Prior knowledge:
Layout: E1 13-15, E2 18-25, E3 38-42, E4 44-45, E5 58-67, E6 73-79, E7 85-90, E8 93-99, E9 105-112, E10 115-124, E11 145-146, E12 150-154, E13 158-170, E14 173-184, E15 193-198, E16 201-207, E17 213-219, E18 234-240, E19 243-249, E20 254-257, E21 260-263, E22 266-268, E23 270-275, H1 288-301, E24 305-308, H2 315-324, E25 327-331, H3 339-343, H4 345-362, E26 368-375, H5 382-398, E27 403-408, E28 423-426, H6 439-453, E29 459-463, H7 482-499, E30 502-507, E31 513-514, E32 527-528, H8 541-550
Parallel strand pairs: 23-24, 23-30, 24-25, 25-26, 26-27, 27-28, 28-29, 29-30
Antiparallel strand pairs: 1-12, 2-3, 2-5, 4-11, 5-10, 6-9, 6-12, 7-8, 7-10, 13-14, 14-17, 15-16, 15-18, 18-19, 20-21, 21-22, 31-32
Helix pairs in contact: 1-2, 4-5, 6-7, 7-8
Amino acid sequence: xxxxISNSPKRICHSLDGVWEFEPVAATCNDKPSVFNExxxxxxxxxxxxxxxxxxxxxxxxxxxxxxxxxxxxLRIVFEAVSHTARVWLxxxxxxxxxxxxxxxxxxxxxVAPGAHTLTVLADNxxxxxxxxxxxxxxxxxxGGIPRPVCFEILPEVFIAHACATPLKEDDEWHxxxxxxxxSMKTNSMPSTAVVTMNExxxxxxxxxxxxxxxxxxxxxxxxxWYPSSPSLYTVSVTAGGDVWRERIGFRTISTQGRKLLLNGxxxxxxxxxxxxxxxxSGSALPPVVHFxxxxxxxxxxxxxxxxxxxxxxxxxxxxxxxxxxxxxxxxSHWQPDAEDMASEAFRxxxxxxxxxxxxxxxHHPCIILWGMMNEAETNAPVAKETIKLFADRFRELxxxxxVTYACxxxxxxxxxxxxxxxxxxxxxxxxxSGLDDVDEAVARTLATLKSRAPGKPVIFSxxxxxxxxxxxxxxxxxxxEDYQSELxxxxxxxxxxxxxxxxxxxxxxxxxxxSSDRSLDRPREYNNKGILTENRDPKLAxxxxxxxxxxxxxxxxxxx
Length: 561
């Protein structure tokens, strides 16, 4: 698949990436078409084709593949993402459905005959009650298609269906908590033990029960901690029967102390950006070269932090953040949910499911220090307190090793701040309804409110910025110019650095990104133009200003602040 490391090194992963047949399908249709007249690439989104640049509907993908085996084989078919809903068939057998544009899903297929087979996917990017996590008015374009890799594996008789390895620190000693679940479509007989290794050194064995599950805690001795300056990674393997599961981990802690964020017990300040997975040529289906290039640009910026706005990110990018010491905030697919959304059973159910998928699939990445629940929700509505607590509790239940937060833009009367470990604030002084002369006073009011409403918690300025069109310059402080954007971002970061309150700042945003055509009156080019880079990754003045500002020191954070 599209990662730095293979989770199943003994299985051959047969990539299904490449050219697929494609056919648009009526929104009311739930079945696969019999005729396909076009071709599109996978990974890819149909909006990359001129004909489907603004197509909102359903699209069917189909391709043939070969199962090379001397007898019927058990398959695992894996989709890293389909946007936003997928219905999948193997030949004429309906395998199932998955909702959620940014998380992986899989199907297990028993006794698939050797030879040629057809895989068909019906993807849906429409809005409505069936799609409770996204809305037509959101400030980023929601694509349709198969934006991440697809593959299939031939399974051994007994295979590892699930495993996880969690670093735990107790009494100044590091341990590794490992859990595994074996399954089979051929036999009820399971191996009695599984062997655990780290960097190819044996840690010990786990007993496997009759139901195929097992677990254990292992002392790992002296380990090198994961830091942004020295991101040490370890490879953990679990071997059971004829199968192997493998994953990379890092040993680090993230905690709070008053206003301070502590990484491995030491204060750390977050300096970075919000980043959409977007490129003008491929939409949300970023090829590896873009992820690698973005990491290089982030390091040149002097950033140690990225907020993955506003959805679970490509695991390849998370792998690269692990390797390069870039801290990460990963969040749910929410954009400005209102009180009606938060009260909705469909919204809550879909959110809880995405929490389980996101944590389960990405929990091994040491770069992730924050789980994000919402972006600019109507958190001054009474229902927000219950809904955000529900999500925060679920995050902590599944992963007590990380902090939880949400991006707030109702600070004055937010009712849910107590559920967040870190208080994160989106603020846009100097842009919406104000100018540069208003920035200092507006930030001062925000800081005063934080002192009264969120004492004793770390604070992140999770969004701030201004839009600028590349090449538009001015001697005067005019909005939409590179000069205005550059000065506004520099000033807000400077105020955060001097505040003694703020633990981190993430500029909005990394690069210009396509948005809904419904927002075109205040989004020239149908883009959110607040990027410090263009969509093609050319730097604006703000990139250079932010890089210079990130070199400057932050005031010491005090618990009284």
